[in-house]
Amino acid sequence: FEAALRRPEGREARAYLEYLEPSGKPWVFLDEAQNVPGWERFVRMLHERKEAILFVSGSSSQLMSAEFGSVLTGRHIALPVWPLDFHEFLSFKNVAVNRPLDLIRERIKIRRLLREYLEWGGFPLAVLSREKRAILGQYYDDVLTKDIVERFAVRKPGVLRSLARYYLTGIS
Question: What confidence tens digit (pLDDT) does each residue in 63-91 have?
Fold first, then answer.
């Protein structure tokens, strides 16, 4: 963090210290860091100098891959975030199923929610939103674009999109 202060582009770090007057180590949250070339070395440097408490997150499969693991070996904990299972989905919908009697009492609501779960899935933001189609469409596009096209330098993304649509519409 101190090294960032000395660089001309370190104005954010200086502003942080000037306006917030932190008493301890700063907490640094980096989201979608994989989009910045060399981010692993910057994080490693901050960690080794013990200048900040670091959190790195992102939606790209690149973060979970072994591509950066060697740079951060022994310095990271991978914490994948998965969609909700059906029990968690019910909890998000305020339906408690703790005993067999709850299943009987709430069976009509549970069946309706099972249809919703099977249709829309268990991504938390989509579960809680009325804009499910838009959210899931954006997730789909992000996976194709960021996790496949950009990462593997696909030369014909239109063909990939057609192939993905073909496979998803004929899952049997």
Answer: 555 555 555 666 666 677 789 999 999 99
**28: β partners:** 54
Q: How far is CA 79 from the centre of its chain?
A: 10
Unique residue bearing structure tokens 């499969």: 61
Quote the CA–CA distance of 167 and 131 in Å, as a whole number.
Answer: 25
Contacts (Cβ under 8 Å, ≥6 apart) of 10: 4
Collect all residues with Cβ–Cβ distance below 8 Å to 88 and sequence separation of at least 6.
Answer: 122
How do residues 47-65 score in pLDDT, each as one tens digit? 888 878 888 877 665 555 5
Q: Which residues contact 154 (CB under 8 A, 6 or more apart)?
A: 148, 160
DSSP letters, 110-150, are HHHHHHHHHHH---HHHHH-S-HHHHHHHHHHHIIIIIIII
| C-alpha to C-alpha distance for 96 and 87, rounded to whole angstroms | 9
